[in-house]
Amino acid sequence: MDAALARAWVAAVAASVTAHAAELTDLDAAIGDGDHGVNLRRGFDAAVAALASFEADSAGAVLTKTGTTLVSKVGGASGPLYGSFFRALGKTLSDDPDAFADGLRAGLDAVVRLGKAEPGDKTMVDALVPAVDAYAAAAPSGFAAAATAAAGAAADGAAATTPLQARKGRASYLGERSAGHQDPGATSTALIFAALAGLG
Ligand code: ADP
Ligand code: MG
Ligand code: MG
Fold it and tell me: Three-class SS of residue 28?
């Protein structure tokens, strides 16, 4: 990935979370505090603004900056989690711009290290794990095919959170009543990978 593609990805995510802000907020209103759409919109709009005045010539620098901006601008749980994801991805790409599959894996590892969620806990991890696995499996076929596979896997993973009972984050306070709603963070992870696939 080069700097231009990384910038295009962040811009596409910002546009997508804006287009889906109401949906993300409604999902979070059902099992959380109703701010997920607002949180991500603020964070990715701030990332786009920060990148506009940031002269980076590598995807690694662009995505690290994106992550740092998300951490500083988003108050909710998702800010530090997505911020860590993009920072770890950016750091990997700074060492090797071609190591996108490894970078996604490093991003996932950072999210798990910070949030301690396991698959099945009804969080963004339920979309992230299948997306990262699908990307790695399809990587030999090239970026476009791998990103498309990852996007499909993330969407399936997000949909599969609906019947689950949350064991991490605010939704876990609801206990059994968290079942029956798709997790907002898993839903936004699907948007992030759909935006990636849209670049191919
Ligand atoms: P907050 O819950 O602080 O208001 P957001 O609404 O922005 O933050 O984000 C909520 C989402 O964050 C959840 O839907 C879930 O996917 C994700 N999340 C919360 N806690 C964790 C965690 N410990 N690990 C992974 N993801 C988490
Ligand atoms: Mg919330
Ligand atoms: Mg909140």
Answer: helix
